[in-house]
Structure formats: C-alpha cells, structure tokens
Amino acid sequence: MNKGSGAWIGGRSAHRPLGIDIGASAIKAVKVRRSGHTAKIVKTYLVEIPRERAERPSPELVAESLKKFLNEQKISTDRFVSSFPLSSAIVRNAVVPLQGHHKIRQVIKFQAEPHIPFPIEEVVIDFLETAAAEDNKTPVIIIGAKKELIAKQLELWNAAGLDPEILGVDAFALVNNYLLRAGAAAPEQMVMLLDIGATKTLLVIMRGRSAILARSISVGGDDITEALQKEFAIDFQSAEKLKREKATAVLGEQPSGDEERIQKTISPILTRLASEVDRSMRSTSATLKGAEVSRLYLSGGGALLARMGELLSREFGCEARLLSSLAPFDGSGGDEAMCAAGIATGLAIQGLGMGGAEVDFRRDDFAYAGGLARAKRQMVIAAILGVCILGVLTFNFTSLFIKKRHEHAALAKELEQIYRETFPGEQAAGAVSVAARMEQKFKEYHQSYERFSSLSDTAVSSLEILREISALVPEEIKVQVTNLSVSQDRVEMDGLVNSPADADRIKQALQRSKYFKTVDVPSTSAHGGNKHKFKLTAAIGK
Ligand SMILES: Nc1ncnc2c1ncn2[C@@H]1O[C@H](COP(=O)(O)OP(=O)(O)OP(=O)(O)O)[C@@H](O)[C@H]1O
Ligand SMILES: [Mg+2]
C-alpha cells in the first residue's frame, strides 16, 4: 500500500516515522525514510532495560526506561508507531461474505462477534485479508484487543511521553518488514517468520504475501539464560554473558567440556521451541493439503545465538537465515542491531505507509488525536515556506531593479553626451528630456528630408539644385561659399568673390536656370584682402 507524498499531510504515511518496540529486555527503535520503492534506515536505537532476573520487567521499570530513552536521545520524528503484543490479542481466521476492503471494514465488528470471547463493545477489532475473494467471499484474519488492555498500555506510555499515532501488532509488524524486503514474493511460496525475543517467540506463516497463521510461543532467550544461571549458579548478567559468548545451538566437531555442558543445559529449551514450530508447520500443512514451509526468516535477539540458523535448518530441512539479510535496507547497521530490531523496523515501515499488513488499534475510542495538530503544524510550515519563497522572489526583483536603474543612469549619461556632441548649441537636461528632444530633432530632420523630397513635385531635389548652381557658375569666377541654405522654395547663398561684378555674373548665370523664378543679389560689400562679400537669394520654381 504505497502512498505518495500527498498522503503525508494528515494521511497514513509520514516522512521519517520512528517504529518503537518495547520488549521485555530492551527498547528497540528504528527511524526510516522512503527511498524509491523501499525504505532507508535513518537510525537505529537499542537500549537495554536493566534487569536482575529473567522475567518481564514491571510496568514502572518499562515506563522509566522509556522516559529515559525519549529524553536522552532527543528523538525527533513526525510519527511514532508502536505495537500491541500478539500474546494479548485475539486472532481468528474467518471468511466474510463480502469483498472489498472498505465494505468489509463496515461489517467486520458484526462478523467478528461470534469469534470473540468477550462482549464486542469491549474490544477493538481490525482485520487483514488473507487471500483474494472468491464467490464474493473473503478469507480474513480477525485481530482484536480488549479496550481495557489498550487503555492501560497507552496510559503507561503517555505518562512516559509517548503517544504513538499507530498502534500495530508486533507479529504483523514483522510481516510488514518481510513484505517490503520480499517484494513480489511467489504467490504460493510458504515461508515462516520467527522472532525469538527474551520472553517469547513470535511465529508467522506466510503464503505469498498473506499471513495465514500468527502465534506467540512462550519460549525465548530468557529461558536459556535462566537455565544457565541455575546450572552454573551464577547471577543473571553473568549467565547472559556466558550465553552470548559460549553457548551454541549446535555443537561443533570437537567441543570443550564447558561447551558440552552449556549445550546440554540449553538443548531442552531449543527442543521445546523447535517442537512448537513443528506443530505450527504441521497444522498449516494439514489445512493446506501438504503445502510446506520452504524457508525460515529469523529475527529477535534470540536468533543471534550461535548456530541457531543451522539448528533450525537441520530440524526442518529448509534454509534458515536472518530476516535482516533479505534485501537489506540502505543504512542498516550490523546483524546484532538489525536482528533485534525486526519488529521496530516493521513498525517504522507501517509508519511510512509501505507495509502490507497494516493492523492498527488506534481506532474507535483510541483514535489518535494528534493528527489534526500535525496537519495544522504542516500547514504552518507550508505557510512559512511560502513566505520565504516570496521573500526570495522580492529580493531578486529588488536587486534586478537596482541593477537596471544603474544601467539606466549610465545610458542616460551616454545619451546626454551624444546629444551634446550632436547638437553643441542645445542644452540637454536629463535622460528623458534628452531622449525626447533627440526624438524631436530626428522628427525635424525627417520633415526636412521629406520637404526636400517633396521638391520632386517640381522635379527638383536639393542635390540637383546644388549641382545646377555649380554647373551654371562660370569656371573662371573664383567663389568661396560661406553659407548655403536650400529650402523648399528658396536658396540663400553667402560668399566671397574677387569683385562685385563677379557677383553680378553669378546672378546672371543662375537666372538662366530652369529651377529659379527670380535671382537677386541684395547686397555686396568689400571684405578686405581684395575680396567682396555678397548675398544671393533665389526663388525656386518657374
Ligand atoms: N549474541 C546473542 N546470543 C544469544 N542471545 C542473544 C544475543 N544477543 C541477544 N540475545 C538474547 O536476545 C534476547 C533479547 O532479544 P529481543 O531484544 O528481541 O527481545 P525482547 O524484544 O526484548 O523480548 P520480548 O520480545 O520477549 O519482549 C535476550 O534473551 C538476549 O539474551
Ligand atoms: Mg521482542
């Protein structure tokens, strides 16, 4: 049941959930995050509960250890997922006359009623489908827990500072762990999951991706420790040490005297465990017409007993290996940490919304109340992020604006410079006015050009007028033109000649032109240096 990140806000998946398994001997916690289609281990914790004897610690000691763990580790997570023990739950196989998860959920309480040995209103019920529906009937495992027990457990944890958002069941957490590792397991392949803890062993038989049997066996590592404690007359801690360092489930080729004594001491316990496993295998095989378990996956601290896999493998004639060695998740620690953390890992996977057996007792009276608060918190975070993004955009805009303003100022200066060079007599004031005035000047020039062009009405362009003047003025007359202006209807020329007679001859020459109506020399005057200044005007158009 993989969920996208959209399901995160207030949904059934979290980004970095922490699965927390409070066992009899230790608190194991695993933080995970999604990594593609699988999970990545972010962190694992293993904190021993200090015990003097091989027995379940008192609720007070558990609460104290839990509180210490949460405070000292400064845990940060967006979801706590913890578990209810299968040994205190009611598990029944049944067939409901319906198909479809939602439809089954609506009626599961009524369907469960005949299978539950308590009044149904005193029990929280969840279920798992164990096979595909056939003829509108679905085989299910009904899982129930007395409200009174759930309340007690939550109360104890709440007092220690833990309010798990999901309350799974330890055995099904193991299933979630296995399913994510196994991927698309062969539909008919039967495997057994065995979590050997301190006080109990959880056993689950899987067919393909469905759990078909789940039970708790009251044999665990504590039984071995206790037997050694008695045999060697030592305290609990020394017996624990002896077990971890010297005990083996199967004797080697040439065992020492001590090793033989240890093995002999623990062997009845191992035999008891093996016979319980065998009983479950036989009963399943009988129900499933001879189908056999083909592989064993071990977890729990007890599975670390030397040569435990070898013993089980010999006993049942199939491969037995550590569950943590099946498609190991990135970030996994060594065997010791991951082996004991089999249930915590499965709980964390359920927190990610990636489990395949998501039993949850936080429903009915125990529905988690922190979901809304978390959704609100996430909305606030989203709002803060939004403001930050807006801030960055505003900053970018402002810096771009300042940069452009500088560029604009530089351009204005350049424009002013060009204006001054182009129109030295004009006064430039500011970039905008310079640009506007420049535009005005261009307009004027354009109009002048148009006017010149419009002389074409009389078939004359300014260029032609100039050519005409220079062609008509006799070559022997030396004329120095100091000003010549040609407009639409008039030519004005100022210049210097050698004598007033020369000015007169120019006038006569121009009078012969087809372009000029009249030609006048309104003034001549001595200029100095034997030169005479003259002014000539001609009206264009004949
Ligand atoms: N290296 C080892 N060799 C043998 N036994 C070991 C080793 N390491 C741990 N154990 C045993 O594993 C058991 C603890 O396992 P685990 O942490 O899975 O149990 P738990 O979850 O605390 O108990 P329970 O599941 O019964 O509540 C203890 O009995 C411990 O002695
Ligand atoms: Mg355990």
Explained architecture:
With 542 residues, the protein is of the alpha+beta class. The protein has four domains: 171 residues, Nucleotidyltransferase, domain 5 (2-Layer Sandwich), CATH 3.30.420.40; 143 residues, ATPase, nucleotide binding domain (Nucleotidyltransferase, domain 5, 2-Layer Sandwich); 69 residues; 82 residues, General secretion pathway protein M, EpsM (Gyrase A, domain 2, 2-Layer Sandwich), CATH 3.30.1360.100. It is built from 14 helices and 17 strands. The chain has a five-stranded mixed β-sheet with strand order 3-2-1-4-8, sandwiched between helices. The N terminus is likely disordered. Bound molecules: adenosine-5'-triphosphate (ATP) and magnesium ion. Magnesium ion (MG) binds next to loops.
Beta strand count: 17
Bound molecules: adenosine-5'-triphosphate, magnesium ion
Mean pLDDT: 87
Low-pLDDT segments, ≥5 res: 1-10, 455-459
Strand order in the largest sheet: 3-2-1-4-8
Q: What's the CATH H-level homologous superfamily of the largest domain?
A: ATPase, nucleotide binding domain
The CATH class of the largest domain: Alpha Beta
Q: Estimate what percentage of residues fall within beta strands.
A: 15-25%
According to CATH, the fold-level topology of the largest domain is Nucleotidyltransferase, domain 5
Give the name of the CATH architecture of the largest domain: 2-Layer Sandwich
Biggest β-sheet strands, sense, barrel: 5 strands, mixed
- C-alpha termini separation: 101 Å
Assembly state of the chains shown: single chain
Shape, per Cα inertia axes: rod-shaped
Helices, by number, come to 14
Overall SS class = alpha+beta
User: What is the helix content?
Assistant: 40-55%
From the alpha carbons, calculate the radius of gyration and give it in angstroms: 50 Å
